[in-house]
UniProtKB/TrEMBL annotation:
Class of the enzyme per the UniProt entry, highest EC level: transferase
Protein name: Aminoglycoside phosphotransferase family protein
Annotated EC: 2.7.1.-
Pfam families per record: APH (PF01636)
Alphabetized InterPro entries for the sequence: Aminoglycoside_PTrfase, Kinase-like_dom_sf, Pseudomonas-type_ThrB
Organism encoding this protein: Clostridium boliviensis
Annotated Aminoglycoside phosphotransferase domain residues: 25-268
Gene3D superfamilies associated with the record: 3.90.1200.10
Length: 369
């Protein structure tokens, strides 16, 4: 398998209640955090495909609680999908329990593993191939939020504390600037000032949450295109995957993170930040899909705050990249010099372009009210 932490995969396969005898097991997907494999078994002549994953317990410190979150949400979704006459085997993840009935297993070296039914006839895409894909991802994430509208968000545990808490991220950034452990602050004074010039907006969403004006919801928190499976035949957004960051959160942040990633005219780490801008076409397409998926679930305040969600998520992400640059590139994986700095500059260029196009963004949201 290459990765020493995955050498116990054979043991894990035996501990999870997969049906039949293993035919093959190969690495699968493009994820960078967990180790993912497609397992194929044969049971009395029937081919049965599965996903088996090693949970990265260095990133997710409490895999047991994480799996409790996922189990609760997927069980709820399955019941909801059945009640709506949908296909529960394809429209949500389905956990393969361990032979001891837990939602995970632990190998003899302490690694945590889990299994899922493999969803056939659907594909994930790392990039927007066409506007329809982006529309379908928006519709699917909106539908995901709506289906979980009655799930008690406070029962979920934060798998990564303060994951989307912009004031907390700002404080960490300010501390990194002050410490300047790598003597890099003087090289990025322009970028530092960009962040500080907007610090009065950092608490906007969290303040509305504290005041009860934005509701706490069950949110995905990683709403990239490649976390939606697209049906190969119909082209429709089918199922939200990668639920490790499912937590209590704000709908505007789920919306905003998708816009940050999918409606940018540049790659996230483009070394030429002048290529970064907001595609209003893609912004409108995603908004249409997302609001169709949500239907009546969002409040008027949530709808009004969707542009701010896009801006705050982009601002926060750029701030995190710049924080990591100042601290010596210790969190995000880098593959070249100034990689995190390039990422930060691209995010800030996108924020600046959103500010220029703010009236148009608001008009688009109002179009779908």
């Amino acid at each position: 398998m290459g990765d020493a932490q995955c050498k116990k995969i054979g043991e894990a396969i035996g501990l999870l209640a997969f049906e039949g005898e293993m035919i093959s097991c190969e690495r699968y997907g493009s994820g960078h955090i967990n180790d993912t494999f497609r397992l194929v078994c044969k049971d009395r002549g029937v081919i049965k495909p599965y996903i088996i994953q090693r949970i990265n317990h260095e990133v997710f410190k409490d895999p047991v609680t994480l799996m409790k979150n996922i189990s609760g949400v997927t069980s709820f979704l399955r019941e909801t999908i059945i009640a709506q006459a949908g296909d529960p085997d394809r429209e949500t993840l389905n956990i393969v329990k361990a032979r001891d009935e837990k939602d995970y297993c632990q190998d003899s070296e302490g690694n945590y593993w889990r299994g899922y039914l493999f969803i056939e006839g659907a594909t994930t895409y790392d990039k927007v191939r066409n506007p329809e894909d982006f529309y379908q991802s928006g519709r699917a994430f909106g539908h995901f939020l709506r289906r979980l509208g009655e799930y008690p968000a406070k029962e979920l545990t934060e798998t990564i504390l303060n994951f989307h808490n912009t004031p907390v991220r700002l404080k960490a950034f300010q501390e990194a600037v002050k410490a300047d452990v790598c003597n890099r602050a003087h090289l990025v004074r322009k970028e530092i000032n960009f962040v500080l010039n907007r610090e009065n907006e950092a608490d906007t969403a969290m303040k509305l949450l504290r005041e009860g004006r934005l509701p706490l919801r069950v949110t995905h928190n990683d709403t990239k295109l490649n976390n939606i499976m697209i049906d190969d035949k119909t082209g429709e957004g089918l199922c939200a995957i990668d639920l490790d960051t499912i937590m209590p959160g704000l709908s505007i942040f789920d919306f905003g993170d998708a816009i940050r990633f999918g409606a940018n005219t540049a790659e996230e780490d483009d070394p030429d930040s002048s290529r970064a801008s907001l595609s209003l076409e893609l912004f409108e397409i995603y908004t249409k899909g997302y609001l169709e998926g949500c239907k009546e679930v969002l409040t008027a305040e949530e709808r009004t705050m969707l542009p701010m969600g896009a801006k705050l998520m982009t601002y926060e992400c750029g701030m995190r990249f710049l924080t990591d640059y100042l601290q010596g590139d210790t969190y995000f994986h880098t593959s070249r010099n100034n990689h995190n700095l390039d990422r930060a500059r691209t995010q800030f260029a996108l924020v600046a372009d959103m500010e220029k196009k703010w009236v148009e963004m608001v008009e688009i949201i109002n179009k779908f009210q």
